[in-house]
Design goal:
The chain is built from 7 helices and 5 strands; from the N terminus they run ααββαααβααββ. The radius of gyration is 20 Å and the shape is globular. Strands 1-2-3 form a 3-stranded antiparallel sheet. A two-stranded antiparallel ribbon has the order 4-5. It is of the alpha+beta class. Helices cover 34% and strands 20% of the residues. A hairpin with a 6-residue loop joins strand 4 (140-144) and strand 5. The longest helix has 17 residues, at 120-136. The model is unreliable at 21-27 and 160-164 (pLDDT under 50).
């Protein structure tokens, strides 16, 4: 068996070569009049969130509301070949978050540079949000009241911190 070294430059080429044959057959077929209708199986793939502090863009606008999609295996593998991650493993979360965040406020082109310029509290919030969404499948967290010690659930995806 021959090993192949993969670099960031040839990842797309490798993925195209290794795609299943049916994907290339579909591209050769003429386009249908209407796209096939997808059935809704109740799987939620995108989750809304509100950042604790918010991302401040170059114009000084604060963006708090955003959305994150579920991660794919490709999303988790791609950062492993990123040179920035190889040089600094702590950069992995920046690259990973930039791939799964679909929108922050009016910004729909979220890239690593945007995540780099976020406040540390917002990045920590997004890392926890990512973990909850991708490993637990929801955005709820069990919490305990420090005064009465009563337990209840809080939805981390919406509302300001501390509000019920």
């Amino acid at each position: 068996m021959r090993r192949r070294t993969v670099t960031a430059g040839n990842l797309e080429e490798l993925l195209q070569v290794t795609e299943p044959a049916q994907a290339s057959e579909q591209t050769a077929a003429p386009p249908a009049a209407a796209p096939p209708r997808r059935e809704d199986h109740g799987l939620r793939t995108e989750f809304e969130f509100e950042l604790p502090r918010g991302y401040v863009d170059e114009a000084g606008t604060v963006h708090r509301h955003g959305s994150m999609r579920l991660a794919t295996a490709r999303d988790e593998l791609r950062p492993q070949i990123d040179l920035r991650v190889k040089e600094n493993p702590a950069y992995l979360s920046v690259v990973l978050l930039s791939q799964v965040i679909t929108r922050i406020g009016s910004i729909s082109d979220v890239h690593a540079g945007i995540v780099e310029r976020m406040y540390a509290t917002d990045v920590a919030f997004l890392q926890d949000f990512y973990r909850r969404v991708n490993s637990e499948g929801h955005t709820r967290a069990a919490v305990t009241c420090p005064h009465c010690e009563g337990g209840f659930e809080v939805d981390l995806s919406g509302g300001r911190l501390g509000e019920s």
